[in-house]
Amino acid sequence: IRRPPRSTLFPYTTLFRSTNAFHYPVSATDFTVIETFNGATVFLPSPVTAGRIITIVNASVGGVLVQPFSGNIDGAANLGLFPIGSATFANPSSIIVVGDGTNWWIIGRG
Predict the structure, then answer these.
(1) Burial 38-48 (b: 16+ CB within 10 A, else e)
(2) pLDDT in tens, 56-73
(3) C-alpha–C-alpha distance, residues 61 and 38, integer Å
(4) Euclidean distance between CA atoms 78 and 90, whole angstroms
């Protein structure tokens, strides 16, 4: 089993986690989540830590839903990520979000 790399600045945090889970709750130590399960839901934690940045990548052949436990993502209750080959700016396959203490905001998409 190959483990994700650990940060040298924060040795107990995971720089990325590749998951093949139908429902994956992002943990306090995840910075990047690469989801490979078709039709999965990735649950963002509550955005109580202002400035926390999380990257989510859809590496599946179908859609992945990103759902916050509380708050919104750019004003929406959730966001669908498209497969890499069919993504557009409006329908991304990956996002980078930052929490403001109440909601999540998209600061990058691909």
Answers:
(1) eebbbebbebe
(2) 999 999 999 999 999 999
(3) 6
(4) 14
Cα separation of 67 and 50, whole Å? 18
| Residue (of 77, 72, 73, 69) closest to 109 by Cα position | 73
Provide CB contacts within 8 A for 79, sequence distance 6+: 65, 66, 73, 95, 106
Edge-first strand order for the sheet with 94-99 is 17-19, 32-35, 53-58, 94-99, 104-109
Query: Could you tell me the pTM of the whole model?
Result: 0.82
Amino acid at 98: V
pLDDT band of 15, cuts 50, 70, 90: low
Q: Is the dihedral of CA 95, 47, 34, 55 positive or negative?
A: positive
Q: What is residue 85's three-state secondary structure?
A: helix
What is the distance between the alpha carbons of residues 18 and 38, in angstroms, rounded to a whole number? 13
